[in-house]
Amino acid sequence: MLFCRLDVSLKQTALCVVDGDGRVVREAKLATDPEVISRFLGENELGCERIGLESGGTSSWLCLELRRLGRSAVCIDARHAAAALQAGFRNKNDRNDARGIAELMRVRSYREVWIKSQESQRRGILLTARGTLHSQRVALENTVRGLLRLEGIHFPTRGSRFAEDVLERIGGSDALHLIIRPLLEARATIMRQILALDRQIIATAQHDPVCRLLMTIPGVGAHTALSFKACVDDPARFQQSRTVGAHFGLTPRQYSSGELNISGRISKMGDRGMRRLLYVAANAMMTRGRWSALKAWAMRLAKARGARRAKVAPARRLAVTMHAMWRSGEPFRWTKQAEAA
User: Fold this and answer.
1) 8 Å CB contact between 18 and 36
2) Predicted local distance difference test score (pLDDT) of residue 109
3) What pLDDT, on the 0 to 100 scale, is given for residue 289?
4) Cβ–Cβ < 8 Å for 212, 325
5) Are 75 and 63 in contact (CB under 8 A)?
6) In what order do the strands lie in the sheet with 48-54?
7) Under 8 Å between Cβ of 8 and 59
8) Which of the four, 113, 152, 249, 250, has the lowest number of CB atoms within 10 Å?
9) 263 or 217: whose pLDDT is higher?
10) Three-class SS of residue 265?
11) Distance CA 245, CA 266 (A)
12) Residue pair 262/256 in contact by the 8 Å Cβ criterion
């Protein structure tokens, strides 16, 4: 029985194969190509029971391709593996990493990472591209505000007429026009590309039955629904819906030792963009739209604990509700009587 570990980098991958007793059978450095790795294992008759590789930028692609080629590849948590390797090897290098994780694969002392489907990854790429353009637009707007503040020019931080407002406040200053106008033109180009990606996101969500179901929840739009489906990928990976809130980092951190038990702020683990969208959806649900049992609970919480906490808790509850609806296939229930039924 053989076990293999891959230490993946962009160009080369360190490979280590151990037997059931932990002895090294074969070591090699190969190109980071699933065809090359699979061919090497086949030519040397290394029928590995498990092939482990740490989570990283290219890990999901390599793991899926190895599985397609008939190899039992497993993607493991890099943080969990790093903590285990610190005790076994003093010097960190590709060879020692490959040996250490091959040993973890042999004794099954690893934490497997979920590999998303290709469809979910493509949707994640779309959402990431849109988020990148949005951050660039915000950076440009903040740069313009900072430059004009040096000239004593102030204007509101929000507004749909940003470019027009800037040009009006600059007035007839030719020097400022030469500096600020290229930034405004770059912002206009980014805005057009954001609009194009928004159309793709909305069209994709409208043609997806799961996204249409999730958008029946107040405050949940196309971006939130599509991002939730791309992040979760398969509702069966969570046995209980309440664990979805912890997966997106919306549950408090806990530190317990002896008689000391501290509950802090939310952990902020998981996907940062999904957590932000859930917070935005909770804010939209509380400030706009129809009244519902969920909104009534959030408003009572806001009155008792404050608006900021009252948006984090509904964000967590929205994630739990979306997962439960996805599993059951039932639309959102607006009243408690509907929930009881």
Assistant:
1) no
2) 72
3) 75
4) no
5) yes
6) 24-31, 12-19, 2-8, 48-54, 73-76
7) yes
8) 152
9) 217
10) strand
11) 10
12) yes
Report d(CA 234, CA 250) in Å as an integer: 20
Where does the chain show beta strands of DSSP type E? Answer: 2-8, 12-19, 24-31, 48-54, 73-76, 252-257, 260-266
Helix, coil or strand: residue 31: strand
Q: How far is CA 12 from the centre of its chain?
A: 27
Q: Mean pLDDT across the stretch 105-118?
A: 79
Global confidence as pTM: 0.81
Greatest CA separation found in the chain? 80
Angle at 133 between CA 130 and CA 135, to 5 degrees: 110
Among candidate residues 220, 272, 280, the one with its CA nearest the CA of residue 247: 272
CA distances (Å), origin 287, targets 103, 222, 258: 54, 18, 43
Neighbours of 304 (CB within 10 A): 9
**pLDDT tier at 319, thresholds 50, 70, 90:** very high
At residue 125, what are phi and psi to the nearest 5 degrees? Answer: -65, -40
- What is the number of helices (H) and of strands (E) in the chain? 14, 7
What's the rounded Cα separation, in Å, for the pair 295 and 302? 10
Token readout for 27 is: 């070591």
Q: In this predicted model, which residue has the larger pLDDT, 98 or 59?
A: 59
Mean pLDDT over all residues of the chain?
A: 85
Report which DSSP code applies to 22.
S
Residues 74 and 105: beta-carbon distance below 8 Å: yes
Q: Calculate ∠ Cα 123-289-199, nearest 5°.
A: 30
